[in-house]
Amino acid sequence: MIDSFRDAFRLPDLKNRFLFVLAALFVYRLGAHIPTPGIDPEAMARLFERGGVLGFLDLFAGGALSRFSIFALGVVPYINSSIVMQLLTVVVPSLEKMQKEGEDGRKKITQYTRYGTVIFALVQSIGMVSWLRGLGVFYGGFLDGVLAVATVTTGSLAVMWLGEVMSDHGIGNGISMLIFAGIVARIPGAIAQTFTMVRMGEMNILVVLLALVIMVAVVAGCVMLQEGQRKLPVQYAKRVVGNRVYGGQSTYIPLRVNTAGVIPIIFASSVLLFPYTIARFFSGPVAEAVQRIFSPGSVVYMILYVALIVFFSFFYTAVVFNPAELAENMKKYGGFILGIRPGKPTADYIEKVMSRITLGGALALAAVAIVPTLMSGLLNVNTFYFGGTSVLIVVGVALDTVHQLEGQLLMRHYEGILKRRGGKSGGLLKL
């Protein structure tokens, strides 16, 4: 990985992309520290000292929510809008047809996702300002409230734009990189707070060491889950084209155990946090019951969390992986799986295998997401959010970024070889 980053800085194009990502992350972290007018910082800090779901929400915002900065909502409205649009593409035939139209259809769906982000950001900002006003954290008048809503909504749209330009002009997925930066930015403060508590005797050093061992094991499990794949052997028949013989070799199709990556974790967390957030704006026994049920750590929350992770794993895999298209391409180029007839039987077999490994990957993903949270509660490590969700996001985004960087390096390596060969051929032709 270190070699890949070193090689990237030797190429001007990749170096500019990498520096662009760093500059965009700097702007994002700068905006996370600019407070929204009308907020009492001390009262806001006391509110988030309770932890719980507020700390979990602040995790996705990178600490911006606890300061109620201009980027307080972070990428949450964009994620919510993306979830709704992906579900609608399955339910609404016109959107499903639009998705299959190619690049133009995807651009239209992206535009609808942006419109949805505006709606979600506006609703959530109004709810947050009203809730903070009721708690006495927001002390401004009506016009100050309107200004705060406009500021936070605009900040959320700026974060969405920043993530998109990072995807277009940087390396990796921009939205995922912003979430990654928000989680990583909290690590130095968490380490310093843990060290202070150990030095003052408020936390046992053996408990901290045990937590570190569990964290290393979780990271190793995340890497294995992200990199694991099932190799499906494929045999290609020999083809005679002119005087040459093509094919006849054996290869394999790499089916990833966790095709969806960290998407199921992010989607499941966002869906479960939505009813809790809405319930916070109301009072009464029903609102309290909803908050208690959907609070992270409750039994109902854990069960729903596992179910949604499994659902989104299958859903996202079905969106990005098409067994029928893969079987048709294999048939076109003379490829077949031993013992399976080409065409539809091959597609059915690939879909059957993919369903099995997706189920195993989804359950493993849910286990990695839940077990660290349970261990954190047992060990009473509350200086930082010691959860599998944050670890999975950090590991998944880091691996995905490294793979994309290696792909860019490999592409430029072959381009360099072709250019050198082209130059030599041009010289011979001139002679």
From TrEMBL:
The keyword RNA-binding does not apply. It is a multi-pass membrane protein. GO terms for cellular component: plasma membrane. Keywords: Cell membrane, Membrane, Protein transport, Translocation, Transmembrane, Transmembrane helix, Transport. It comes from the Bacteria. It is found in: Cell inner membrane; Cell membrane. InterPro entries: SecY, SecY/SEC61-alpha, SecY_CS, SecY_dom_sf. One of its GO terms (biological process) is protein targeting. The keyword Cell membrane applies. The chain crosses the membrane at residues 112-132, 138-162, 174-193, 205-225, 260-279, 299-321, 357-378, 384-402. The central subunit of the protein translocation channel SecYEG. Consists of two halves formed by TMs 1-5 and 6-10. These two domains form a lateral gate at the front which open onto the bilayer between TMs 2 and 7, and are clamped together by SecE at the back. The channel is closed by both a pore ring composed of hydrophobic SecY resides and a short helix (helix 2A) on the extracellular side of the membrane which forms a plug. The plug probably moves laterally to allow the channel to open. The ring and the pore may move independently. NCBIfam families: 3a0501s007. HAMAP family: SecY. Belongs to the SecY/SEC61-alpha family. Component of the Sec protein translocase complex. Heterotrimer consisting of SecY, SecE and SecG subunits. The heterotrimers can form oligomers, although 1 heterotrimer is thought to be able to translocate proteins. Interacts with the ribosome. Interacts with SecDF, and other proteins may be involved. Interacts with SecA. PANTHER family: SECY/SEC61-ALPHA FAMILY MEMBER. This is Protein translocase subunit SecY. It comes from Thermanaerovibrio velox DSM 12556. The gene is secY.
